[in-house]
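2024-03-11 09:14:02 INFO receiving multi-entity request
2024-03-11 09:14:02 INFO entity count = two
2024-03-11 09:14:03 INFO echoing inputs for audit
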Amino acid sequence: MGRGVTLSIAAGLLCLLAVVVIGGALVAYNRLVRRRNQVLASWAQIDVQLKRRYDLVPNLVETVRGYASHERATLDAVAAARSTAIAAAGTPGAADRADAENVLTHALGRLFALAEAYPELKANQNFAALQGELARTEDKIAYARQFYNSAVQTFNTSVQTIPTNLIAGIAGFRPMDFFQAVDGERAAVQVRY
Amino acid sequence: MDPRLLLDLAVGGAALGGWFAAYGAVRLATRPADPTPAPATMELGAEPPALVSLLVNRWTVTEDAAESTLLDLAARGFVELRQPGDDPRQTTLHLPPVPPDDSALRPYERRVLDRVRGLAVDGVLPLTALTFRDPARAKSWNKRLRAQVVADARAAGLSRRRFGPTVTTALSAAALLAGVVVGLAAAHYGSWRGTEDNPGLAAGVFTFAVLSAIAGATPGERDTPLGRQLAARWLGVRAWLRGHEQFDELPPAAVAIWDRYLAYGAAVGATRLTSAVLDLGMGDRSLVWSSYGGTWHRVRVRYPRGSRYGKTMPKLLFSAAISGAVGGFALKLFGPSADLFSTGSYPGARTFALVAAGIVAGAVLLLASGGYTLVRGLADLLTERTVTGEVLWVQVWKSTSQGENQPARPWLHYLAVDDGSGDRTTAWGLPSQWAGDCHDGDTVTLRVRPWTRRVVGFAVVGHGRSRSLAEATVPETTGVAAARAGAPSVTPQALFPPEEVGQAVGLPVRPAEAVDLPGPLTGVQFRAAGDGAAVLAVQTVAGTAGQWIWRLNARGQELPGVGDGAYLAGERAVLRVGDRVVLLTLLGVARGRAAYLPWLLAQAAARAAGRDEAVS
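2024-03-11 09:21:47 INFO inference complete, emitting structure
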């Protein structure tokens, strides 16, 4: 009798333990899925803003070409950077995309710097409007990157910490890349007199 | 029970029940919408965070409105938040040396910014020092902020009054009907009971007055089609922000990175930590910020309790004498009987002896207490000293008992003062007649008695920055607010210069002449410069009377954005600024110039608001 009771209790405890473990695993899995989806949604927001930037660039290039057609190198660089960025939009990795977008950002920066030498271009309303719209888009890209990196950090922390990393390993969740600045952006700005 | 009484009660009850049922139905029908959130998005809109807070909280202005406005001001460069360590409660506010142009700030944004500017010392203010130290002032400040947010929302078409004029009129008409029915029931009761004074009229009038007051009290705001649409979109932003778990844990100083997102996050309730740290309500009276000595520091304040604190010398001596007299009398009466070892012959003798011994012990204690009080009281008198410091907190301590026909009146206040000697202090007992003379932040010199903690001499030697933010408090029937609130500090003559009145009425006028009016009303009259005929009457009143006058006259065409409320009805206009109410009435040849009254009121409101904030 005593032995039977003991066995029953042990079985009951084992069942309870199994329920707790399975329940915990399900909760951890769902949390990983939720956080991964948040990362994907944040990436989609970056995508929206980047695409908006792509759409603005051709109009900007044509406006500048009307006033500074001989600045071929700079204009071609912007067009090439845009093409590269659009091509990179199809790649899955954030790192490659980030690199391409940063190249485009630099190219646009050189274009706006060039416009300083052409007062008629600066006074052009279309150019001013495009410049303002691009500036706002850049701000939105910056915030979208912040949100994305925040979501990636949360997701990566879940994937790498115990005990969620066990579920992550079994279910195939992997840490994701941040949307980072390139080394040139991080270096201190030099001033030359 | 008499069936006639049952009938009267049933009829009266049915009338009241019917009215309240109608009122409840109207409230149900006009409750603010609960919009379905749009898909999650990070795209912000043009609405300021305070309006967003109103929209996402179902057209209720919460504390998030002020907190999110502060963060928005930080994002736009009007203030800077810095957190030196790990604790976000150590965050400090810094005013920039060259502030941005603030001419386009909305009224509630300016209100928050002015609070920061008014409290900062050398451009620095601890974030947690934004709290208020006076409940009436906190209530008034927040009430005005809410009114300004609501006014802005109405002007933008995002919000409207929950009870419009039609609904209010209908409920008032129903109240009249209910009053008539209740009055008839009461009259019927009076007639078959044969009472001397028939209660019908009184019951009917009272019922109508109460029900129409309930109908007239606005139960808040409700949605508009545009408001619902924008609320849905902002709920989508909330969903986006809440999806980012780290956002919840961002401190206020993170506004430097997250910019207006943090402000909107606070507005939609997605920033748990930031919202917990930010507080523009009532502070903690036991841990108060002080800027005495030029550096912000916190002072822990103890509020003493006990019968001796705050007592005058005569009362102290009287207490000592009473204790001594009672103790001596008890000792004389029970002393001979007190014998712990008594073995008396009658039953209960030992018990009686023990009880007597106990009474004697108590009497001895009373005598000792009386003697101690006498000695310490006299020593207190001889050890008076002077204390100079910054006022930290003023609060009612002791009040007289409430009588049948008399409300409780405070006679002693707590006065916490930082004299710079340490980070702890004990509050003093300040006679209430002086309590209205000082505000938190003022520098005061006190003559005090340390043992009773009583203030026997008081002088304000310097006004604090908070004096410029002193709000007109909402008067109460009892308490310190009634003692501290006074008559309108701005006269009708100051609010309405003759030149402006002349422009409004269309002819030159003489300077205002004072008019004798009953009760708390003050009034002036403007007369035409030519024939001296009266053209404009201006009456002002504050306090409870002002509230009633406002309630009676807040009818007709509403004038949004003018003061804290304004209405135009025929040849009469009414304006409210704080707890002051101003009534304008066109007279004689000036009738017909009502179209110019809104402009005149707007000028007066701006003048009154400017004077309020410049009081020092």
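2024-03-11 09:21:48 INFO post-check: Residues 184-193 of chain A have pLDDT under 50 and may be disordered.
2024-03-11 09:21:48 INFO post-check: The domain at 21-180 of chain A is CATH 1.20.1440.20 (de novo design (two linked rop proteins)).
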